[in-house]
Amino acid sequence: MKIKSVNPYTEEVNWTYEALSFGNCEDQIENSRAAFSGWGSLSVEERTTYIARAAEILRQNRRAYAGIITKEMGKPISQSLVEIEKCAWLCDYYAENAAEFLKDEVVETEAEKSYITFEPLGIILGIMPWNFPFWQAFRFAVPALTAGNVCLLKHASNVPGSALEIEKIFIEAGLPEDVFKTLLIDSKAAMEIIDEDLVDGVSFTGSVGAGSQIGELAGRMIKPFVLELGGSDPFIVLEDADIDRAALVAVRSRFLNAGQSCIAAKRFIVIEDVVVDFIEAFELHMQELKIGDPMDEETDIGPVAKKEFVDSLEKILKDAKKKGAEPYVYGKEQDKGFFFRPTLIPAASTDMKVCNVEVFGPIAPVIMAKDEDEAVEIANSTEFGLGAEVWSADLERAERLAKKIRSGFVTINGRVKSDPRLPIGGIKKSGIGRELSYYGLKEFVNVKTVVVNK
After folding, report:
1. Catalytic residue among 262, 358, 372, 435
2. Cα separation of 246 and 250, whole Å?
3. pLDDT band at residue 289 using 50, 70 and 90 as cut-offs
4. Residue 416 · residue 409 · CB < 8 Å
5. Does residue 108 have an active-site annotation?
6. Rounded CA gap, 14 and 70, in Å?
7. Are 360 and 340 in contact (CB under 8 A)?
8. pLDDT tens digit sequence for 309-357
9. Measured on CA atoms in the order 259, 264, 266, 268, is the torsion positive or negative?
């Protein structure tokens, strides 16, 4: 089977690779198992020297890596450069803090000595998405590697070049052979790896449907797993908010990466007293966006990653129109590429698909709420619970609302964005487990209690 990387802007094939057979995967897994004994026995300080070196390599070659991202999934090059820098920051963070996070925790008991120690599990399989092809892979791999695990990466089929380049980075950083490996395989082979009990943990970011299957398989094999399954994040604007600033951030949040982000604001819930002002400001800031060639550093919005995504977005927009929407569509049709023009739905209703499914594209529905209680009710009326934003000049009020919102992450007067220092993950159908920070580092370790008596 061939795996092709297609440029969403030019619609031309970047690279073609031969997919691995399941038999080849088994051989690699055996090699990874052998590599674990050496890697897992190193001290945290020894392991983090390699992670720190990876950060240096990322920064030295940031433009080349960013170019691969843009060619494979269409992200504007300016955003791809930020993604590479963020990966380097992640490496720095764990290189500087992992030893402290993983040190034994002493607990006073009646025994001579009692402590908790954190030991790696073995092989962790990461099944990662295409929308942030470097960041998502590093976000999974760096904490797992730092904790002493070895990693196998099954990346999305449309970003094989990114997947192989990530492997090269870790090799250049000096990681021992087979400690990190990319497997160019399809989803069926990844499921077989889990079902055959060949790995010791699974980290997955993607759809609810695929996450449910992976969770079922991992559960059957009694393996720990982390699932990040996306969201329909509410962006609540109260009547005392700075409307222009809120609208500016709303546009940036919704249309970053052409709207292809799990933690992007996806439903704009605005108190009726200021809804007209918010929509007017939103439209003005939409008109500042530059749409076009993602390799142009001035471009804000490039194509979506695949042609079929355009069709899916059209169906969502058609449903909204059928239910009364009168969308505002910005920008001109492009001559080539998988483009979907930024779209505002100024009077969305909660029965529209755009308000109920995870919309991976540049469509922004605005829902009017009569007061803050209704705003929270609408915010929580979804199967998802990943991120949320609250905008208000009254910080105590905003924090009170934040506690009522059922999600894994809430920001006040700012955009939800992942940060190595803070855990990220969801509740409800947005997932299980946490990535990043102290908490993400310990998702794939054995939390072992040791009690010493005389």
Report:
1. 262
2. 6
3. very high
4. yes
5. no
6. 11
7. no
8. 999 999 999 999 999 999 999 999 999 999 999 999 999 999 999 999 9
9. negative
* CA nearest neighbour of 206 among 197, 216, 214: 214
Return the DSSP state at 274. G
Cα 146 to Cα 49, 123, 143, 445: the distances in Å are 10, 13, 5, 11
Placement of tokens 């269409």 in the chain: 74
10 Å Cβ neighbour count for 89? 16
The runs of H, that is alpha helices, within 323-404 are: 372-380, 395-404
Report the C-alpha gap between 135 and 292 in whole angstroms.
23
d(CA 155, CA 163): 6
The crossing angle, in degrees rounded to 10, of helices 22-41 and 187-195 is 60
Structure tokens, 312: 């899916």
For residues 49 and 190, give the distance between their C-alpha atoms in angstroms, rounded to a whole number: 30
Half-sphere exposure of 415 (CA within 13 A, CB side): 19
Separation of CA 310 from chain center: 21
**Residues 114-124: what's their mean pLDDT?**
98
Q: Is 151 a catalytic residue?
A: no
| Overall average pLDDT of the 391-417 stretch | 98
Q: Is 431 left (phi over 0), alpha (psi -120 to 50) or beta?
A: left
| Cα angle 182, 184, 189; round to 5 | 110
From the candidates 72, 228, 358, 372, give the one annotated as an active-site residue: 228
What is the model's pTM? Answer: 0.97
